[in-house]
Amino acid sequence: MKVLVINAGSSSLKYQLYNMEDESVLAKGRVERIGFESSILTHEPEGKQEVTEVSEILDHTTAIKKVVQILVHQEHGIITSVDEIEAVGHRVVHGGESFSNSVIVTQEVKQEIKKLFDLAPLHNPAHMMGIQAVEITMPNIPQVVVFDTAFHQTMPASSYLYPIPKALYKKYKIRRYGFHGTSHDYVSQRAAEFLGKNLEDLKIVTCHIGNGVSCTAIKEGKSFDTSMGMTPLEGLMMGTRSGDLDPAVVPYIMGKVDLRISEVNSMLNKHSGLMAISGHTSDMREIEEDMNEGDANAKLAFDMYEYRLRKYIGSYAAAMDGMDVLVFTAGVGENSVTLRKRICEQLTFFGIEIDDNMNETRSSEERRISSKHSKVEVLVIPTNEELVIARDTYKLIK
């Protein structure tokens, strides 16, 4: 079976085509600047040269049509007919309390996703456009939706409820949902397999560190607590998001600077985090380069970022009464030697001992970076959220 995985954004669309017989990626690519005259399609077919096309792509339906056309293209394609695609899997950020598992798309499912637009106004409407575009372009192909929040539906009420009037939860479902669930699920399973142990026997802290950052405490194979909340804004300091702060800061700022709610929301989501403290960048690679050249703002940004990560790791070890495995994943987690080293060197009271040579090895492979004497296994596990979506899609459709 061939499964097409789609991650639709408001002005972009990423895709991967899988052959599920061996879980190989036949092609991948992205469409950027949807809605503009100069949209860009980048296509990477397995065993062939990368192709870039610039054209007018004004909506997601046109974007999907372009993707299908390039997949079956005589020279650049990887399949002979769209009929070879037997299912399409979509990433959907917010499933609320409605979805604790991946599901086949039905009219009822679409209605539930629409009800959750208020909880993820930047993401869920875009995902729905992707679903509707596939319905128009490939009307007879079944679709599956995989939710970022589903993995975290196992959290106990003591983890997901906020200490506010309970009526707000009952009426408006204001609670912690958590995100990056497909990533935390995947790397925790891979960690157990790497170590040759049962996932249910391990207490794992997984750190998904990219432009968005989240930590999850995984106990007995299930999400026990996670750093992101009702929205992805809560929790750790991120590339452009503030993470945790005193809620009273918001009305105070609005009173002092005369900002609207939408403007404060934009400030906290798009103009805070590393970007705000460094003064010019949200890219950890640039932060580290500037820090090494003596930039005080870059050093402060790095120190705050690392400190908050380390606090969450420690708190989750306390929440689970121990930690057997610490996992780093995603762009920064997989590539920042300096960040991993700094965090681990200041968690020695847990019995963590890092192997500098393994930590400094540049590799895209799964690997252990803790020493043989370390009481906690420290692993780098490259995430693969697209494969999780493809697997769930294959399982449900088959």
Automatic annotation (TrEMBL):
Broad enzyme group: transferase
Domain of life, per lineage: Bacteria
SUPFAM superfamilies hit by this protein: Actin-like ATPase domain
Gene behind this protein: ackA
UniProt xrefs under InterPro entries: Ac/propionate_kinase, Aliphatic_acid_kin_short-chain, Aliphatic_acid_kinase_CS, ATPase_NBD
EC nos: 2.7.2.1
Organism: Chengkuizengella marina
Binding site for Mg(2+): N7, E385
UniProt name for this protein: Acetate kinase
A GO cellular component entry from the record: cytoplasm
Reaction catalysis annotation: acetate + ATP = acetyl phosphate + ADP
Family per similarity comment: Belongs to the acetokinase family.
Site positions per UniProt: Transition state stabilizer: H180, R241
Amino acids binding substrate: R91
One record GO biological process: acetate metabolic process
Cofactor annotation comment: Mg(2+). Can also accept Mn(2+).
Pathway membership, UniProt: Metabolic intermediate biosynthesis; acetyl-CoA biosynthesis; acetyl-CoA from acetate: step 1/2
Localization in the cell: Cytoplasm
Active site: D148
GO MF assignments: acetate kinase activity; ATP binding; magnesium ion binding
HAMAP family: Acetate_kinase
